[in-house]
Amino acid sequence: MYNRAVGIFGGTFDPFHNGHLQLVRSVLKLGILERIYLMPNYIPPHKPQPVADDRDRLAMINLVCAHEQNIFPLDFEIRRQSVSYTFETVSKLSEDERFSNTRITLLIGMDSLINFTSWYHYEQLLQQVNLVVARRPHYDLADLDQCLKSRITGTEIFSPFDAGQILLVDNPSVDLSSSEIRSHKFNSIDNLIPPYIIDYIKQHRIY
Fold first, then answer.
1. Which class in CATH covers the domain with range 4-204?
2. At 43, is the secondary structure helix, strand, or coil?
């Protein structure tokens, strides 16, 4: 029996930027989750390896959580020191007392949803979690596997204590990537990253 509903937002967060923050704030405002955990990946199976080391990425996440309400750090995958397969992570977290009787909803981007059927044990994963997906431009739902399309629901009927639902949310700020920030594509990053993260990056000479 589940009596708590929380979100987990995993990623390399290399670095964490305002697109990430806007998504988390938007989902919390929906009132469907009591809190959201930010979980840095150790070795992401579907993305390039992080540039910043584990300590710095986790430190930046800790800063975010110190400045925000109902957002908490989760260092599970970094402590585990292995490839970060979400199915394995969720299965292991079910043994953690912090997640006892708790239904997990994963926050992901539209790019991840389009490729979700390539995830390790994705069918079993959907028996354990829900997905909240940030819409992004240039991604067409026509490309989505039919087994995933059938799971898309609306906010008014989304049940955070059940599993296997997919909720799409609008997030205008999410069309921003950490790799673009690291490549110095923008003249200024002042409006792209929280100021305390910018201070940390400068202080520790990351990127």
1. alpha beta
2. strand
